[in-house]
Amino acid sequence: MKPPARPDRRQLVFRRAGIRAVDEAAIQKYGIPGVALMENAATALRDACLPRLDGADPLALIVTGPGNNGGDGLALARRLDNEHVRTATVLARSPDRYEGDAATNLRIVERMGLPLFIAGDSDPTSVLDAAVQSHGEPTMIVDAIFGTGLDRPMREPYPAIVSWINERGRGGVDIVAVDIPSGLDCDTGRPLGTGNDSAVRADLTVTLAGMKIGFFEPGASAWTGEVIVGDIGAPRELLEQLAVGSD
Questions:
Q1: The whole model's pTM is what?
Q2: Max Cα–Cα distance, the chain, nearest Å
Q3: What are the residues whose beta carbons fall under 8 Å from the beta carbon of 200, sequence distance 6 or more?
Q4: Is 40 helix (H, G, I), strand (E, B) or coil?
Q5: Domains of the chain
Q6: What does the pLDDT look like over 124-142, one tens digit per residue?
């Protein structure tokens, strides 16, 4: 008799609490360092982004928050640089706000000498404009600001940054979201704030470990665009245990 079929990552669906539990158990129960999970996420992101960066001298503008989502973006910056793709990374907050694995990847990016711009709290759009003036219009903007942990409307400077990203997207720049478009509720598939720019409008979302339940809600695809699942290296049995419907 054949063993029962195992669900693939595309079939595994998570709520906010479940995906948080995946990260915690992978680190605490299985002993996988958080920075290793981040590196695996960066590999998945690189593989998803490279085919979309096949033009002449492409530029990826990576906008990062201070948490793990931003750490994924920072790790992606150096992985793309290793593939000879030009990058410019914008820190949404001052460097001292980056902690843990995100700070580790920020230090690596700094030591590699990759282009970094600090938006901070005062006038983030002027810093984003400066990055474009310095390096040219981006082929792609990577949204690595907030992940699935966001459960309330964004506060400044983030709404201004999201509005800037969406304006570039309306102008034809490819927008790729890390895990989830910043500002979107992963459980409901709706923006946590109000207005047309209350969340990033992505062309592609590389969601990590498994699908998020809110992505199946009506209207969610207007924010997520195409969705693919990226492997972070969490044990299969752990993912299956914590996915929606596993209980």
A1: 0.94
A2: 64
A3: 143, 145, 162, 165, 166, 175, 177, 181, 182, 183, 184, 223
A4: helix
A5: 13-242 (3.40.50.10260)
A6: 999 999 999 999 999 999 9
